[in-house]
Amino acid sequence: MSSAGKIEHAVIVGVGLIGGSLGRSLRNRSGVARITGVGRSVANLDEAVNLGIIDSYTNDVKSAVSDADFVLVATPVLQMPEVLQAVGEGARSDVVITDVGSVKGHIVDIANDALGDLKNRFVAGHPIAGTEHSGAGASFEALFENREVILTPTPTTDADALSVVEAVWRDSGANLVTMDVETHDRILSATSHMPHILAYALVDHLARQPDSGQHFDLAAGGFYDFTRIASSDPMMWRDVCLTNKAAMISSLKAFSYDLNSVIDAIQREDGHSLYDLFTRSKVARDRALFGRRKG
Ligand code: NAP
Questions:
Q1: Does the CB atom of residue 20 touch ligand 1 within 6 A?
Q2: pTM of the model
Q3: Of residues 155, 151, 157, 143, the one with CA closest to residue 184
Q4: What is the number of the ligand 1 atom nearest to the C-alpha of 19?
Q5: Is the shortest distance between the CB of 107 and ligand 1 below 6 Å?
Q6: How far apart are CA 106 and CA 92, in angstroms?
Q7: Per residue in 217-245, pLDDT tens?
Q8: DSSP category for residue 70
Q9: Residues whose CB falls within 8 Å of the CB of residue 158, separated by 6 or more in sequence, listed in order
Q10: Strand pairing report for 70-73 and 9-13
Q11: Which residue owns the Cα nearest ligand 1 atom 3?
Q12: CA distances from 46 to 7, 17, 138 (A)
């Protein structure tokens, strides 16, 4: 039996797409018998019960975690300080706490402040998996299969807590990657956070054109492929921008510089530069996709 098999009572704070998907895996793959949900909207929590993700629910984090041995925090990032504070006040000393937030430096900092004596029981994590949909109804058990999950333990993280969190993610089918928070926030600002901002900005740019209806009517599949993620939850991405500010500004400025170079090349009618850029880009993308499919 894996270390995850030691979990008797799991609490999920935020039973949405990510929390609900890991909840399904905790139930069906890690064999956790009892799962309690914590959230604000009764409709979402009722749906999570009906889908068999959680057994019961409450809106009180502190009481929910009092006899939990595993706590998953899967709310939007700016909701986490209050949630972690309540976990720190209510949980047992041997609890294992983890999160799935899309930024890591900010969350590790607030966990250190909010969790008090339990801070070494916290293992920060980020699954590189998701969809543009939200809520328990959008969750599915296979979401993490063959996807990377980044863990950012610190030198003081308890080894047994880390091994439980690793086992939970392995049970879900994920591939584990460990890195420090700065590396996580820098790389993810470029590969995940910036594409979402570009998609939102592009759709908003077109929506504000006087003849925006005609723009959208005539948009091809490529436009909808490129902008699928602009249908994601605005609150989630607002929180990511506000909590990974320095890395995002750096990524966006570097990209903006490169975009200006493309404008210049078009202006100069520099077909060689444009062809070289598009070829480099196609090769890099095809190679990255092929590598993922093989993996
Ligand atoms: P989601 O589907 O909207 O789920 C978030 C859940 O948190 C909702 O069910 C919401 O329900 C609940 N919630 C919000 N505030 C709360 C609070 N104060 N206390 C308790 N529950 C609260 O969002 P998600 O996509 O699963 O994202 C959750 C986290 O995963 C975020 O931190 C995000 O950065 C991270 N993440 C997302 C993706 C992705 O692609 N979506 C990928 C990787 C990581 P109520 O509003 O009813 O309370």
A1: no
A2: 0.95
A3: 151
A4: 26
A5: no
A6: 24
A7: 999 999 999 999 999 999 999 999 999 99
A8: E
A9: 120, 121
A10: parallel
A11: 134
A12: 23, 15, 14
